[in-house]
Specification:
The chain crosses the membrane at residues 72-92, 113-130, 150-168, 180-200, 296-319, 331-352, 385-413, 425-444, 450-473, 480-501, 507-531. InterPro entries: Na/Glc_symporter_sf, Na/solute_symporter, Sodium:Solute_Symporter. With 574 residues, the chain is mostly helical. It folds into two domains: 3-201 and 280-549, Sodium/glucose cotransporter (Up-down Bundle); 214-266, no CATH class. Helices cover 68% and strands 5% of the residues. It has a four-stranded antiparallel β-sheet. Strands 5-2-7 form a three-stranded antiparallel β-sheet. Strand 3 (235-239) and strand 4 form a beta hairpin. It is globular, with a radius of gyration of 24 Å. The N and C termini lie far apart (65 Å).
């Protein structure tokens, strides 16, 4: 009941803001970019709320428990990406007058084919990114409220689709700004309370980790997904209430199994995870999959997250809501500061989680460590209260990010692939949401952090080269843009699919297949440049570049020029 009371206000406020947005929405521009009237402060709060997804609110702390201190490189990459966006992309994207990334592609290169291709890329990135939001909503409500997995998934999908269909970008903006403030407070205050409440011994253990080899007390572990572990010595457990002795070797716990390890029992090793608290866990580098190449793994994640941020379509669309290029640049600058404050705290939850809820390391449910911690330090009303507050903050993270993702995906369908009016956009919102819910229902076993990083990888391999070269290199051609985007899409998506369905790999090859950004991004840049050099840029390319880099007159105000993007491309081609 307490969890329902915590989540219900978040959902209700989201829907109420959506209802208020109906009166202000009359055109496609209103729906997609809120008529470009959002101030830098509100916009930066909305960008931060949209960007701080399940991977940030829950996933980073879970990755610290699972992979160690090196997981803190994820928020470094997330935040550094906005610095690159501030310098290279924010203001020119707004000056383009586009509504969407495909809009920008056609305005810059006058290529309907490139517009359709980039719309497909938007759908690919959105799918990879939005599924873990709905998935984690289901897992969190299951972990803290005991509801079936599908309840959280369907609730998140319904709240997001109704809000967007009613209020569009204007509703999404104010929902995301409100939810950023909510998430920051509901992340910061419980973190301080946990540090104070955990006690001196636990704080010392968190700051001075040692390898977790034996259970200090009887520990029940409930498995939500199938997990394969390596038993190091004969271990007596109770499995679903039945005593048994596990022999050395591989042991698979199935979904919904409950295994109780006795005090003093040896801790099994988890395949693909660093030994909890061991030397590898303490190392400030990311040894992905425990493959023995931590520096390569760290660089792979940094390249994907930093360059991928510049190519995330739901983040890029945010800058189109600014009145002008100066406001877009200020939005990016304020966003860096807001993200920097938030990312001070995931590490606190991660190191305390290693000490207080080590069972999550075995069950594979490390994504729920944030909401599992309060009950471990206080079994009374305070623990229940902070669990409810963190659950509300987590649900706000799912909703805020999903709003932006569903908006760009519906825009890709109903504005770029099959252009239509407001009615078609609203229908697209419900259709996309339904498909994402169905996919999320089948994705409980996938790692949210890995999925989100893959979304960054595809964005870094496709839109990052297109935007950087399209904004800063006048010799880019339509053929080069198409070839580069297609190469990046095939390379990154193909590598990810091979990692999911192909044979098991080891060593540095496994890292470069699982996280292909170190080679897929340079490949896309190279192909885009080489194909463009073999052609001839159009005569109007200089005029198109000037439009991106010259400041707008201050008197221009928030006047919307996006409806003339196609007309501009035709005029420039003369």
């Amino acid at each position: 009941m307490g969890i329902a009371l915590a989540v219900a206000p978040v959902v209700l406020v989201t829907l109420l803001i959506g209802v208020r947005g109906v009166a202000a929405m009359r055109t496609t521009s209103d729906f997609l970019v809120a008529s470009r009237r959002i101030s830098p402060l509100v916009n930066s709060a909305a960008v931060s709320g949209e960007y701080l997804s399940a991977a940030s609110f829950l996933g980073v702390a879970g990755l610290v428990v699972k992979d160690g201190i090196g997981a803190l490189w994820y928020p470094v990459g997330f935040t550094a990406g906005y610095i690159a966006m501030l310098v290279l992309v924010a203001a020119p994207m707004r000056r383009s007058g586009a509504l969407t990334v495909p809009d920008f592609a056609e305005a810059r290169l006058n290529s309907p084919a490139l517009r359709r291709l980039t719309a497909v890329v938007v759908l690919v990135i959105g799918t990879i990114y939005v599924v873990p939001q709905f998935r984690t909503a289901g897992l969190v409500l299951t972990a803290v409220g005991g509801t079936p997995y599908w309840v959280g998934v369907v609730l998140a999908g319904a709240a997001v689709s109704v809000t967007l269909a009613l209020g569009g970008m204007r509703a999404a903006t104010y929902v995301q700004a409100f939810q950023f403030v909510l998430k920051l407070l509901l992340f910061l205050v419980p973190a301080i309370w946990l540090v104070l409440q955990a006690g001196a011994v636990n704080r010392t253990d968190a700051l001075n980790p040692v390898e977790f080899t034996h259970f200090a007390r009887e520990t029940p572990v409930r498995f939500e997904v199938d997990v394969t572990m390596e038993i190091r010595e004969p271990t007596t457990v109770r499995r679903n209430g039945v005593p048994e002795t596990l022999p050395p070797g591989e042991f698979t716990a199935h979904s919904q199994d409950e295994v109780v390890f006795g005090a003093g029992a040896a801790v099994p090793a988890v395949r693909g995870g660093a030994p909890l608290g061991g030397a590898g866990w303490q190392r400030p580098l990311l040894d992905l999959g425990d493959e023995g190449h931590p520096l390569l793994g760290t660089w792979a994640v940094l390249i994907a997250t930093m360059l991928g941020t510049m190519g995330l379509p739901h983040v890029l669309m945010r800058f189109h809501t600014s009145p002008d290029g100066r406001a877009a640049r200020r939005t990016a600058a304020i966003t860096v500061a807001l993200l920097g404050v938030f990312y001070l705290f995931p590490g606190v939850y991660g190191v305390l989680g290693r000490v207080l809820v080590p069972g999550l390391y075995l069950s594979g449910a490390t994504d729920t460590v944030v909401v599992a911690l309060p009950y471990q330090v206080d079994r009374g009303w305070a623990g229940g209260l902070f669990t409810a507050l963190l659950t509300a903050g987590a649900f706000a993270a799912f909703l805020a990010t999903s709003l932006g993702l569903l908006l760009v995906m519906s825009g890709a369908i109903a504005h770029d692939l099959v252009p239509g009016g407001l009615r078609r956009l609203r229908i697209a919102v419900f259709g996309v949401a339904a498909i994402m819910v169905l996919l999320a229902l089948r994705s409980a076993e996938l790692d949210a952090g890995v999925l989100v990083t893959w979304g960054f990888t595809v964005a870094a391999s496709t839109f990052c080269p297109l935007l950087v070269l399209g904004i800063w290199w006048p010799r880019l051609t339509a053929a080069g843009g198409i070839a580069g985007v297609l190469t990046g899409l095939v390379a990154s998506s193909g590598s990810i699919l091979f990692a999911l369905a192909g044979p098991e790999l080891h060593g540095w090859v496994a890292i470069l297949v699982q996280q292909p950004a170190p080679w897929s991004v340079p490949l896309a840049f190279g192909v885009m440049a080489l194909v463009s050099l073999r052609g001839r840029p159009p005569t109007w390319s200089t005029a198109a570049m000037l439009r991106l880099h010259l400041d707008e007159p201050r008197s221009s105000g928030p006047r919307d020029r996006s409806s003339t993007v196609r007309r501009l491309a035709r005029l420039l081609s003369r």
